Amino acid sequence: MTPRISVATRRALAPLRDPLGRALAIAAIAFGRSPAGRAKLLHSLRVALSLPDRLRPAALLHDVVEAGAFELRDLAGLGVPPRTVHWVNALTRRPGETYLDYIRRAGRTAAGRALKLADLADNVARRRARRPLRAADRRKLARYAEARAVLRSMAARGGQWRET
Fold first, then answer.
1. DSSP characters for 34-48?
2. I want to staple 30 with a disulfide (CB 3.0 to 4.6 A). Which of 3, 51, 104, 121 is the partner?
3. How far apart are CA 98 and CA 35, in angstroms?
4. For 33, which DSSP code?
């Protein structure tokens, strides 16, 4: 049985012109679903499409290591360019790392800041779309706002973080 493809999925796939890339995205959407039944890849696609071409591969892969699907060395072994692996590494939270330490590490480079800000923007949009907003949603939105402020502050300081 062929999975039913939603209008949102079709819109997300429309910019993908490469047949192999498109097929990969469709397969990932068809088989990679969250417990709520949402296609997990759609978030990565939205993040990627909001960024310049050079950052899109990292945006598409930004959650795969944290999700446990691959390790960084797997990505390199699959032919992912070293620069992209470096950016994915920057966006991968370490076990035991506090959220703000993770945000500061991700924001050390302009590419890391752009990727994380795009990720946060999509997360915020998805949370705000929920009705009614639950307490957990409000907590996440506050956390995302703090992270965005840290990243913007770092951008103003050339990637450096200073407590005020």
1. -TTS-BTHHHHHHHH
2. 3
3. 25
4. B
Q: How far apart are CA 138 and CA 128, in angstroms?
A: 9
- 132: preceding bond cis by omega (within 30 degrees): yes
Q: How far apart are CA 55 and CA 8, in angstroms?
A: 22
pLDDT digit string, tens, across residues 39-77: 677 888 889 889 998 888 888 888 888 877 777 887 787
Q: List phi, psi (to 5°) of 65.
A: -75, -45
> Which residues, 6 or more positions from 22, have their beta carbon under 8 angstroms from its beta carbon?
13, 16
What pLDDT band is residue 146 in, cutting at 50, 70 and 90?
very high
Q: Is the pTM of this model over 0.85?
A: no
- How confident is the prediction for the chain on average, in pLDDT? 80
CB-based contact 74:44 (threshold 8 Å):
no
Q: Residue 106 in contact with residue 113, Cβ under 8 Å?
A: yes
Please provide the size of the chain in residues: 164
